[in-house]
Amino acid sequence: MAKLTDQIPQHRQNRCGSKPIFINRWSPRAMTGETIADEVLMGLFEAAHWAMSSNNNQPWRFIYARRDHSDWNKFLGLLAEGNRVWCVNAAMLMVMVAKTTFDNGKPARTHAFDTGAAWGMFALEGASRGLVVHGMQGFDYDRAKSELGVPDGYEVQAMAAVGILADADTLPEPYREREKPSTRKELAGIAAEGGFTENIR
What we know:
Blueprint: H1 8-11, H2 20-24, H3 38-49, E1 60-66, H4 72-78, H5 81-87, E2 92-99, H6 111-128, E3 131-136, H7 141-147, E4 154-164, H8 173-176
Antiparallel strand pairs: 1-2, 2-4, 3-4
Helix pairs in contact: 3-6
């Protein structure tokens, strides 16, 4: 049975001693189509629920459908064809939405930033349980807002697929060779002390 960590040593190095969960999390596409127990899925939402946010605004909202739900095909139909072809084997599809204001009506400039923090918690919790948790922007944002009844004052941010990991050879041919943990930029390319430098462009 495939494990999320199987390919990590071939593609990633933990140079600075970060906790393994950060290195081991990646975004596979191969999923079995099996159901995930409700208590497991709720554990992912529970992790996201404890994310940090400006003024404890908690702007994130998660709208989801499990593969046995009547709305499954509606969620699947929002995806670009390139994502739909492998998301068909997910256990759950989810749309992430952010509330753009505080409860007092003032603009919340960090609504997307904070929702991203919640997504990160969700994804790490999924990885810690050995699940596929794959975020994406390849879907119809306008249709998602309309068809899922997202009101004004909320912005659609991203979609994600959650499922049980399958072997790469279950994917259609164009995706098999891509089914490996991605690398990252060097730290010098993302962090600079004192000001924005040419290295982090």
